[in-house]
Every structure is written in structure tokens, then in C-alpha cells.
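can u pls check wat happens w/ zinc ion
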Amino acid sequence: MTKKYKPISNKFPHLLHGGDYNPDQWQEYPEVLKEDIKLMKKANCNTMSVGIFAWAALEPEEGKFEFAWLDDVLDSLYENGIYTVLATPSGARPAWMAQKYPEVLRVNEDRTRILFSARHNHCYTSPVYREKSRIINTKLAERYKDHPGVLIWHLSNEYGGECHCDLCQEEFREWLKERYGTLDKLNQTWWSTFWSHTYTDWSQIESPAPHGMNSIHGQVLDWKRFVTYQTVDFMKEEINVLKGITPEIPVTTNLMGTYPVLDYWKFADQLDVVSWDNYPLWHGEKEDWKLASDIGFVHDINRSLKGGKPFMLMESTPSMTNWQKVGKLKRPGMHLLSSIQAVAHGSDTVQYFQWRKGRGGFEKFHGAVVDHVGHENTRVFRDVAEVGETLQQLDPIVGTSVEPEVAVIYDWENRWAIDEAKALRQADMGSDYEKTCKKHYREFWKRGISVDVINMDCDLSKYKVVVAPMLYMLRDGVGKKIEEFVKNGGTFLTTYWSGIVDDHDLCFRGGHPGPLREIMGIWVEETDALYDDDKNYVVIKDDNELGITGEYEAGILCSLLHAETAEVLATYKEDFYAGRPALTVNKFGKGEAYYIASRNEERFLNDFYDTIINKLALGKILDMELPAGVTVQKRTDGENDYIFILNFTGDEQELNMKSVNELTDIFTGEEITGQIKLGAYGVKILTK
Ligand code: GLA
Ligand code: ZN
């Protein structure tokens, strides 16, 4: 039996290809709008995202609406076989609104209210903003509810940031009252006796500020939770209006990868489809293949957010990104490769910012399908058309998914808590956590093993292996869940700086790693933070069950632990903790739990995961050693497999396919035998 998710919309059950289209900027240029349609067809585009920042064009004066131009756009797109992702315009407000109702403008952390400016900077609490959004969204939904071209709603744009206005402060307090009931409970939970911060009235509680609160971690953490809550609440109001009028049209909003401010797991349930905006710095400071692995990690988060359901690549650049430190162009091949990469991880779309470069404004030099020259005879246009042509041949992939045996836990609240902890190293510990998760993930990516990237609340029972680096926070019940997972035969891996605090950022009593202590069979007594140049070594014990030997460099963070029931696989070589355990495994129930006590050089992760993967016979998509920089990803409907071979190096690569049977090239229909070659930044899609 094949298993497929439904397409994003039954109106057009194909892979979507297109971009952000801003016809509101070109109303004085009717010939350009006409030309756009011709060019869209030439570029093999079938979808445009329309109206994202069009509020001022849709409601030029309060209560005066102008939809005629948008009618024309949607109609002429549809008549030409191009579908619409229709946006609600709340990502940027018109000037008249900011002037008349200053409360819609955001107040920064330092408590200054911004002037009318930019975008993505309104107050999510403001009743006026919510009401104005409700009105315009109602009008849009009513007007286009039966439009055959509208595929999906694009809610706002990149919800983000936080507002510290009085309205938000008040809502924060209400949210806290709901959560804690009494001030007593709140004070206890926040450990607010510290530095005499006991609150005696709710009105004393404020959001964090550079000149204010930042020392009560429970409070800071709750503020971050509230920001997510309030943003989701605003989004829910947008959704409710749309669903009331167009229950059949799905909704999405464009997320921003691992954007640290918002916990995207709280968004996922509200959305019919997850989508995200991807702007990697190709050919930059990081080697392309390592960056590709990091991007794979984020694609996998987006697929995992809805339990494996295909997502949308809502934005990517056709060439360069104007706001980055260096606006380097994509090298030949990279556009197709990076677009197909998204599909390989579960995206059913490849979309861009932006269709056409505007003549003015902040983004007039941002990469676009159509450049200022205005015709199709450009390298970028040809690259885009090639992606479109490729996607047209991939219909069977729509709705297929990925079925990993491995999960990596990357958790937003854990990141927030690590960031705030004021411990170990005063560097950006939050991004250090993200980087660490990505490094563990890479070991699977480079071997062509599928991975889900989940948060700690997800069901673990479907995986063989769960990797949870730096699992500092363990929310209520998570320890128990990991225990069940290992008892039932799962393999669990974690590292230094795990099992330290609970949901409220309160340290566990009775020894780290808290609820994981018995599962891991260890007690972590201390953790040493080292200077960048400090080195220690991890020496693998002879005759260990992993079958690895030798020593590896260690540094940055080294935990000093006692093996209780765990077996010691490696020990430290130097310093006062020479001889103490550095790597342990604990047999627990039917499973095993590994603890990596120190941050070790990459070679360690490579050798270590090699043995784990072999030991557990984890399924590699292709049973072979891949050349460095090449990955293999797979989508499947249970019967038919679609195998993507992606070369993220600038060199030709060869793969010996002798051991692989029954694969054909999806484009040529040729059976694959012997050697296959991938050109620089080359792609192959095979099917079984
Ligand atoms: C974001 C926004 C777009 C555009 C691009 C430019 O993703 O959503 O409107 O500004 O960045 O890279
Ligand atoms: Zn506010």
C-alpha cells in the first residue's frame, strides 16, 4: 500500500514553483504586468505569492478598499495557468494607521516606541492592529473565497520580534496569572528571593530590558514563552477569520529556520502546511557541503514539525541575497542543487523571493527571477526555468515523505535556557547549542541516512536512535519518556550539559543529569569550561565494545563524572581529571544510553557514529561510502523510492553503484549500473 500526503491543494496537485510577486509596486507600468505573465510561463512558474506587503494598496485610506487591481492580477495569473498563494497583509502597516493609532507601533526592549518604519514591527497585542487586520482579512477572504486560482493563505510574513508596550506588559501579567494562579507560586517557581526579587504585586512584573530585568531566569524564560504565545495568538486570530469564510483553503506562514525568538513547535498545530524561508550563504566562509548539511537540518525540522508532512520552501533567492555580509552569486549548478535539496528533504515547492527586482527601496538589488534588464536572457532566469522544468517531471514525488530511524532533538526552550544560564562560557551559548546539534546531525547527513529533527515533546517510540546533544533542560515527563524509549530497546545518546534544569530553569537536586541519571548510569559531579586553546584528550579504552582505538582531542566543555552502572569506554588523558570517564555506555532494559562527556574533535564524532551506525545496522539510503561533500536523501510512498544524490562540492564526483540494484534515472529512464558521475554541484534523482 502506498502512503502519500494530500497535495497542498487539490486545485493543483503538482510541485509548486514561483515567487513573491509584488504587482502593487508596478501599477503605473501595465506593460510590465503583461510582460510578467509571459515571463512566468517561460520560467516554468506555476505559482505566485501575492499581496504580502500590499496593505497600503488595498486600503489606501482607513475604511476605503481597493481590490480591483488585485482582481486583475489573480484573474490574469489564473487565466494563464498560474496559481496564487494569497497573503494577509499584516506584515507591514500603512502610514495612515501608524499616524492615527500609534499603539500599533512596537515598543522596543529599551521601552522606546518606534517611529513609522520598515515592517514586521507592529504590536501583536494592540486591539486596534488586531481589529484592522480582522477587517482587511475578512474582505480578502470574502472577495476571493471562490477564486479558482487561490491555493493557500500566506499568513502575514515572517512573524517575529517582540513588543514591550504597556498593552503587552499587561497581557504578559495576565498570562502569568493564568499559569501560576498566585504570586506565591510564581515567586517560588522563579526563585525570586534571589537578589530580593520577591514580587508582592503583579504590576511589579515587567518584561526583560537592558536597563531592567535579566537576572531571574524563570522570568526571562516565561517572557520568551509569552512572546511565542502572543504571536501565535495573533496568528490564530488571522486564521479564525480566514477559516470562518474559506474553511477549504489551507493556511501557512513563512517560518525562518531556527529563528531563536519564536518556538515554531507552537505554530505547527495551527498551520495546515509548514513553510519556511531559506537564505544560506553559499560559497562563503563555511564549506558548501557543511552548510548544506546545516540547511538539511533545518529542512528536516520543517518536515518534522508536522510529523513528516511535506512542507513548502516559501522563499529562497534565485541568485544573491542583498542583506547578507557578502552578496555572492550562486555558482553554476547551485541554484538547481539547492532547490532540489529542499525537495529531497520533503518540500513540495520551490519558491523565491522575488519574482522581479523593484526599481526602488531596500530590496531593489535582491536576487530575482527577472532583473532590471526586464527580459529572460539572463543566467539567473535560465537557472530558474531549468528548476521549473525539472519540477514538472517530478509529479510522483508530491505527497511522499521520509521515514527516518534516527531523530536529533533540537529544542527551542532548551536553547533559551542554555542561552540564559550564565554558566560555563559567556559566549553565545544558544547558538553554540544549535551548532552542536548540527554537528551531530552531519554524521548522518554525510552517510546518506535520513533524520528527523524534533523537539523533546515528540514521540520517540518510532526511532531506533535518538541523539540529544546538550539536553540541558528536561521538561516534565521527558526523562520518563527517554527511560521508556531505552527500556524498550532504543539507543539514546547525549552529551555534557544535559539533565541540569527543569521546565522552570530550576536545577535538579540529587545530582546531574537529573532524571537521566539512572538511564545513563552516571553522576556528573562537575563541568569544566576551557579556553579556546586549552586541550585535553580522550583515550579510547582497549577492547571496548565499539571497536575504536586511539585518542581524540577534547576541549571547550568537559564533564567530570562517576560511572555508576555505566561502562567506561574512554577516559581523559590530561589535567587533574586524567583517567576519569569521558565516554560511557549504560545497558538499560533492552536498550543502551551513551554519554559523551566532552566536546571532541570532529574525527571523534565520525569514528564514534560509524560504529554506532554499523552496530545498529542503520539503513543507509545507498549502501556505500559516499564521497566527501555528497549526500543522499530519500522520499518514499512506501512502495516507490525517490533517491536524491546531491553533490555539494565544486568538483566532479563518482559513485560506484555496483552494489545497488534496480535503480533508474528518473529523467532518462536509464538503469543505473557501474559508475555514475555527478558534475560540480550536480544532482541525480533515481527511482526504484
Ligand atoms: C525575507 C522576507 C522577504 C524578503 C527576503 C529577502 O525572507 O520574507 O520579504 O525581504 O527576506 O531575503
Ligand atoms: Zn505591544
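The CA atoms of residues 288 and 676 lie 22 Å apart.
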